[in-house]
Design goal:
This protein is an alpha/beta fold. It folds into two domains: 3-45 and 95-354, no CATH class; 377-530, no CATH class. The longest helix has 21 residues, at 269-289. Helix 2 (12-19) crosses helix 3 (21-39) and helix 17 packs antiparallel against helix 18 (315-331). It contains 25 helices and seven strands.
Length: 532
């Protein structure tokens, strides 16, 4: 079902709210913030490692980053991990990962996005001494009570927010001619990863051209040197060429001889919507300024290029960049209603596109979703029980359909919940695959096969990869199909239907996919051998 079809299927009341959503947000966003702050009080009790996020989908999907930290902490960036990829994954390929950011986010995910978003918003107060203080406050409140800030705090962001929270200060010091503080700002932004340093280049270069001060780009030298130092581990054994080639394939910079295609040739409706929103808001702001709003237009361009050509960052990072550049431009303008409206539109994309509003033909009343920090420990504990028979050094094959060369088909639509057993397996020093790193290592024509769900395909992959167990899935509530019982012994089961009540109505897989039930299997020949 396309977005247009979904819209047409909505009740009339919700259609009206969507068409005039900025008006409804004026009162809904402050209410949602107040409720979310109340729900977040549980974080004052500590135990931050129990909460990787607020939205259940974001929290469970963020197990991806906890898996990274487990491996970095255990093996070190210069070593290989036996529990990732095909079983010997070089961690030096993670040149883009910041160790401090990985440590912080893996152990305090919800706190990280919440606190960093507040810092990102509040840091704009530095403008109060340079402009009318009331206009600075109005601009800051506009950003605070926006769908963007709300989504970054409670639904969409990850460890990257540790870097983006410094962006307003970096822009302020750059604009006000304080090169040392500006350099520190951009450097601090780049400490959490390479992405902020990458996007700092076009932003500062554009500012330098606008001010006719090309020497301004010199303030990026510390950040760029630090970013370049991330590549040093790749120099070992000549790994830099392969790592860069794999990265180029991953972000869609090349489609040459790749096995999995991102499908970036098509322009999706979400990309069109955000690009159009930013362009329209930038043009409206240009009218109010009496000159072209260059940086907001740059934001629209960066978003489009990232989504259409080279996916350097997740779309939420581009949304933060765009919002920062709009606020940066608006806060320096002469106070007027047109500028404020342009800013309000830019920082308030439709909430349902940011995972903070539920709209459907079968549920949702258009209100902004309020999520308490999501405690994943019950799910994690039961997945540990599901994998209890596996021991350190074991290998487990998870059976998924062949994605037929399309990234969107990888893991059969269950990619979010797949992160949970991957994290549990890594913590047990068990190699569960395929994972995203196996996808990366097999992203070339003629790569070894690691897909297949039929009995014969699973048996073939068990033999090919010399695994100890296999996981297959069926629809929730079913017993193991008899076709498996001849060759496999069922060790344990995990039915997601038993945990739907924990997910607050959030579906962790596409609506056209059934609720899955996992079965941990062992080939009967191996089972008999292990139990003799």
């Amino acid at each position: 079902m396309t977005m247009l079809q979904k819209f047409l299927a909505l009740p009339l009341k919700l259609k009206v709210e969507l068409l005039f959503y900025p008006v409804f947000l004026l009162y809904r966003m402050p209410i949602a913030w107040a409720k979310s702050l109340w729900e977040a009080r549980v974080l004052l009790d500590g135990r931050w490692s129990r909460y990787m996020g607020f939205n259940p989908q974001n929290a469970i999907n963020s197990m991806f980053y906890r898996t990274q930290w487990i491996n970095l902490d255990r093996y070190g960036r210069s070593q290989h991990s036996p529990v990732l990829g095909l079983g010997d994954y070089p961690l030096r390929n993670w040149f883009h990962i910041s160790l401090p950011a990985s440590l912080i986010y893996a152990n305090a995910g919800a706190v990280t996005t919440f606190v960093c978003t507040l810092v990102w918003v509040a840091s704009h107060i530095v403008w109060a001494e340079n402009i009318d203080a009331w206009w600075a406050v109005v601009t800051i409140l506009t950003l605070l009570f926006s769908t963007t800030a709300y989504a970054m705090a409670f639904a969409r962001q990850n460890y990257q927010m540790l870097g983006w929270m410094w962006l307003p200060l970096a822009l302020f010091f750059t604009e006000t001619g304080q090169p040392i503080l500006a350099s520190l700002g951009w450097f601090a932004s780049g400490l959490s990863g390479i992405t902020p340093a990458f996007f700092a280049v076009p932003i500062v270069f554009t500012m330098a051209i606008m001010d006719d001060k090309l020497a301004l780009v010199m303030i990026l030298i510390p950040a760029l040197i630090y970013a370049a130092s991330r590549f040093l581990p790749l120099l070992k054994d000549g790994g830099i060429k392969q790592a860069l080639r794999n990265t180029a394939k991953l972000i869609g910079a090349t489609q040459n001889k790749v096995r999995y295609h991102r499908g970036m040739q098509r322009i999706g409706l979400v990309t069109l919507y955000f690009t159009a929103l930013y362009v329209f808001s930038a043009l409206l702001m240009s009218v109010s300024l009496g000159e072209i709003a260059i940086l907001p237009l740059l934001a629209a361009l960066l978003f489009f290029v990232n989504q259409r050509f080279i996916r350097v960052a997740d779309e939420q990072s581009l949304i933060v960049i765009a919002s920062s550049l709009f606020v940066f431009t608006a806060i320096q303008a002469q106070p007027n209603w047109i500028t404020l409206i342009a800013l309000w539109l830019a920082v308030n994309p439709m909430a349902w596109l940011l995972s903070v509003q539920q709209l459907s033909t079968y549920g949702g009343d258009g209100k902004i979703l309020v999520n308490a920090p999501f405690d994943h420990t019950v799910l994690e504990a039961d997945v540990k029980r599901f994998l209890a028979e596996s021991a350190s050094g074991d290998r487990i094959y998870f059976a998924f359909e062949d994605p037929k060369g399309i990234y969107g088909n990888i893991f059969d639509g269950y990619r979010v919940i797949h992160e949970l057993p991957l994290q549990v397996a890594s913590s047990k020093e068990v190699h569960l695959f395929p994972d995203w790193y196996a996808v990366l290592e097999t992203n070339y024509e003629g790569a070894p096969e690691c897909w297949g769900r039929s009995v014969d395909e699973v048996i073939e992959n068990c033999d090919r990869w010399q695994v100890d167990f296999a996981i297959i899935y069926q629809e929730a509530g079913t017993d193991l199909d008899e076709q498996w019982t001849t060759d496999f012994h069922c060790v344990s089961e995990f039915d997601w239907a038993d945990y739907l009540h924990l997910l607050r109505g959030v579906c962790l897989w596409p609506n056209d996919k059934p609720t899955p039930k996992w079965f941990l299997l062992q080939q009967r020949s191996k089972f008999k051998k292990d139990n003799n």
